[in-house]
């Protein structure tokens, strides 16, 4: 039983961690938390299941999906984020505008697709067939998802240390100050939305074989990804992945041991408890601001 | 809101009627001829129509209203209601309970003869509550037992089987027909899930002096069903009531069962066969059954009526059905619309009070899916004997007419 809980915690926690990493990518240059992230992921999963993209070889299909979702995210940046930030970099109107964009996506999806879920096959040579190893039961695809999540953390870490990452940190610290130093925050914001959209598309692609592609999948992932972000610490990609694993494990344990119907209570109680003890996130990285 | 008219009269009919009215007028009887059967001036029947046109459920719920649209065509072909065109006022509820009070306000302003919809247990509860004082006759698709309580909601008429009826049929199938003694329940954490879980527990206690060996309740956005399925497996469940309005949850539960090689006999309330089920072992799907209407089932000897088959074929041809013929044909709205047309013609009135009085006396009305009867207190119109158990895999048989009708389970 414990083995099952750990496997579920790692696999689904990796998805939650990826959602939270998507939040981080967009938050860095804008201080915006993108409430449309769940629906961007849903688009990724649905496109992976739909023709003609779903009929392409997996890698090509995944690349197409990431590109399409990146473009949708860029459109969101153009209509829902930049106009708000242009008025004031500290304005909080993005809460409503990103939510509104999320509703627009849900609306379009509701017209295009029914609520019937679609299966998406994992890429060769991975499969959903369950293997038994040392008391653990898992599929090769589940291992693949965990590996991709870890790889995403490493790649985002490399990006963070690059010239682009330095510019992003400067914009995050002081958008107007960065502009005075010759950095174009608007261009960086656009790039971040493209990258964040691609990451959301990838998360949808990865989630589709596990959760099935469905128009209803976005909201649940958004909430759990947001929980991972809160517990892991905004801006800390390693932290959010670990937080995703912790929350995934607590969720699975809640389903196995808690009284029927109280899994959400267990999950969010655990989240509150962690935040009470570690208010700056699991790894406790305080936000630093260099002036 | 969209309002349109379904012309109920042919050109010849109109001219004949006009000539007759003119003649009667000339005889000094014009007032009598022009007075509507309701006695309040010429007035066409107006239908209040609540359907999600926007939002996440818009495409998913479209098939559910196909039957009502076909009924409108049939009413039109029969000359409308009381010889007049029928007006339809469509209202978008976005598939949301929160929209119902605003939709109710618009319905009250429209003063429809009767209301079709909304769909979904939570939406229906919100709607009937908001419309309770308006005395508008209404039928919506919600399975909660209280929706058929004529004392509580005197103007709502339930033309679907309720959760208690469903629970009785499911428990009888598992316990009596299949002889299973280790019955488990898995439901979603929602109004519907809670209602049917309680009904199954109550039925097992009252009818068989037993209780479920495991009860699992999952959140509708649960990512992984493995822990719930493992709990059922550990409890030794051999017969399972699986009730959720989320097709995704059903597929994820079956996937967790397939991964564990755990194949209990399952009774659900949804027999929609979707492509995603194709990945599961046949042994698992062969043990999957669901509650349905007797009129929509067949056996080796007994076939559905020609009327049913014709309607199914029409539903399958309709562009809004989108392959979800099972949802479309089990929807209450075709039977409701045709019943209302009959009641209007029988009473020769559009007065809601007269229509309600007539509805409360409906007995054994032959609907497409089942016989319908009401009393002033009992507004749950489907008789227990018209509810049965069908097999999921019969959706693949030619007799199912594209997965809409179902083979009745052996022994039922």
Commentary on this structure:
The complex is a heterodimer of chains A (291) and B (412). Chain A has 291 residues and is mainly alpha-helical. Helices cover 72% and strands 3% of the residues of chain A. Chain A has helices at residues 2-30, 37-49, 58-87, 94-112, 140-161, 163-173, 175-180, 185-211, 217-232, 237-257, 263-277; strands at residues 130-133, 136-139. Chain A has a two-stranded antiparallel ribbon with strand order 1-2. In chain A, strand 1 (130-133) and strand 2 form a beta hairpin. In chain A, helix 1 runs antiparallel to helix 8 and helix 1 (2-30) crosses helix 9. The mean pLDDT of chain A is 90. Chain B has 412 residues and is α/β, with parallel strands linked by helices. Chain B has helices spanning 11-26, 30-34, 58-61, 66-77, 100-110, 121-131, 163-177, 191-208, 226-234, 247-260, 282-286, 306-317, 325-330, 333-347, 352-359, and strands at residues 2-6, 46-51, 86-92, 114-119, 138-141, 183-188, 214-218, 239-243, 265-268, 288-293, 297-298, 365-366, 371-372, 387-391, 406-407. In chain B, helix 10 links the parallel strand 8 and strand 9. In chain B, helix 9 (226-234) packs across helix 10 (247-260). Chain B is globular. In chain B, 55% of the residues are buried. The A-B interface holds A 1, 4-5, 8, 11-12, 15, 106-107, 109-119, 128, 130, 137, 210-212, 214-217, 219-220, 223-224, 248, 251-253, 255-256, 260-261, 263-264 and B 52, 54-60, 63, 189, 215-224, 226-228, 230-231, 246-248, 251-252, 255, 259, 272, 274-276, 278-279, 322, 324.
Descriptors:
heterodimer, A: 291 residues, ABC transporter involved in vitamin B12 uptake, BtuC, two-stranded antiparallel sheet, globular, B: 412 residues, alpha/beta, Rossmann fold, six-stranded mixed beta sheet
Summarize the structure.
The complex is a heterodimer of chains A (291) and B (412). With 291 residues, chain A is mostly helical. Chain A has eleven helices and two strands; from the N terminus they run ααααββααααααα.
């Amino acid at each position: 039983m414990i083995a099952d809980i750990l496997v579920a915690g790692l696999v689904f926690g990796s998805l939650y961690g990826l959602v939270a990493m998507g939040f981080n990518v967009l938050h860095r240059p804008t201080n915006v938390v993108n409430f449309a992230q769940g629906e961007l992921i849903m688009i990724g999963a649905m496109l992976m299941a739909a023709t003609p993209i779903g009929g392409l070889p997996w890698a090509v299909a995944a690349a197409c999906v990431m590109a399409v979702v990146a473009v949708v995210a860029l459109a969101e940046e153009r209509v829902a984020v930049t106009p708000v930030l242009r008025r004031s970099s500290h304005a909080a109107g993005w809460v409503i505008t990103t939510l509104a964009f999320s509703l627009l996506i849900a609306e379009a999806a509701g017209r295009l697709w029914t609520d019937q879920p679609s299966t998406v096959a994992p890429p060769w040579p991975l499969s959903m067939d369950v293997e038994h190893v040392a008391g653990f039961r898992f599929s090769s695809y589940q291992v693949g998802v965990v590996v991709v999540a870890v790889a995403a953390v490493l790649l985002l870490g490399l990006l963070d240390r690059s010239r682009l990452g330095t510019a992003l940190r400067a914009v995050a610290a002081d958008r107007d100050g960065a502009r005075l130093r010759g950095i174009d925050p608007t261009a960086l914001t656009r790039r971040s939305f493209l990258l964040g959209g691609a990451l959301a598309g990838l998360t949808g692609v990865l989630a589709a074989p596990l959760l099935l592609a469905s128009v209803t999948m976005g909201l649940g992932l958004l909430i759990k990804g947001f929980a991972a972000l809160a517990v892991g610490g905004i801006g800390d990609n390693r932290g959010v992945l670990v937080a995703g694993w912790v929350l995934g494990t607590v969720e699975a344990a809640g389903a196995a041991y808690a009284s029927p119907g109280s899994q959400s209570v267990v999950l969010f109680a655990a989240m509150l408890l962690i935040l009470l003890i570690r208010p700056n996130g699991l790894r406790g990285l305080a936000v630093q601001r260099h002036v | 809101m969209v309002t349109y008219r379904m012309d109920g009269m042919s050109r010849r009919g109109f001219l004949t009627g006009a000539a007759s009215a003119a003649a009667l007028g000339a005889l000094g009887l014009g007032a009598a001829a022009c007075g509507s059967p309701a006695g309040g001036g010429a007035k066409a029947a107006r239908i209040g129509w609540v359907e999600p046109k926007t939002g996440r459920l818009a495409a998913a719920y479209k098939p559910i209203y196909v039957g009502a649209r076909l009924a409108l065509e049939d009413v039109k072909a029969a000359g409308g209601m009381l010889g007049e065109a029928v007006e339809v006022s469509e209202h978008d509820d976005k598939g949301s309970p929160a929209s119902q009070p605003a939709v109710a306000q618009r319905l009250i302003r429209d003063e429809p003869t009767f209301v079709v919809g909304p769909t979904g247990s939570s939406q229906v509860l919100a709607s009937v509550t908001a419309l309770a004082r308006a005395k508008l006759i209404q039928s919506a698709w919600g399975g909660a037992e209280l929706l058929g309580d004529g004392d509580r909601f005197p103007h709502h008429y339930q033309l679907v089987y309720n959760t208690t009826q469903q629970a009785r049929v499911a428990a009888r199938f598992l316990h009596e027909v299949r002889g299973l003694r280790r019955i488990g329940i898995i439901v979603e954490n929602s109004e519907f899930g809670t209602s049917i879980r309680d009904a199954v527990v109550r039925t097992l206690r009252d009818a068989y002096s037993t209780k479920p060996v495991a009860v699992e309740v999952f959140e509708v956005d649960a990512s992984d069903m493995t822990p719930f399925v493992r709990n059922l497996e550990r409890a030794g469940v051999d017969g399972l009531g699986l009730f959720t309005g989320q097709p995704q949850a059903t597929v994820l539960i079956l996937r967790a069962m397939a991964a564990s090689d755990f194949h209990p006999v399952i009774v659900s309330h949804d027999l929609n066969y979707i492509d995603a089920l194709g990945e599961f072992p046949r042994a698992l799907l062969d043990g999957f059954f669901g509650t349905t209407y007797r009129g929509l089932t067949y056996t080796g000897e007994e076939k559905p009526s020609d009327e049913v088959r014709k309607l199914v074929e029409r539903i399958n041809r309709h562009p809004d059905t989108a392959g979800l013929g099972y949802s479309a044909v089990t929807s209450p709205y075709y039977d409701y619309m045709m019943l209302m047309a009959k009641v209007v013609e029988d009473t020769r009135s559009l007065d809601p009070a007269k229509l309600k009085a007539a509805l409360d006396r409906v007995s054994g009305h032959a609907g497409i899916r089942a016989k319908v009867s009401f009393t002033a207190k009992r507004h749950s119109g489907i008789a227990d004997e018209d509810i049965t158990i069908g097999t999921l895999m019969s959706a693949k048989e030619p007799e199912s007419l594209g997965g809409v009708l179902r083979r009745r389970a052996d022994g039922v």
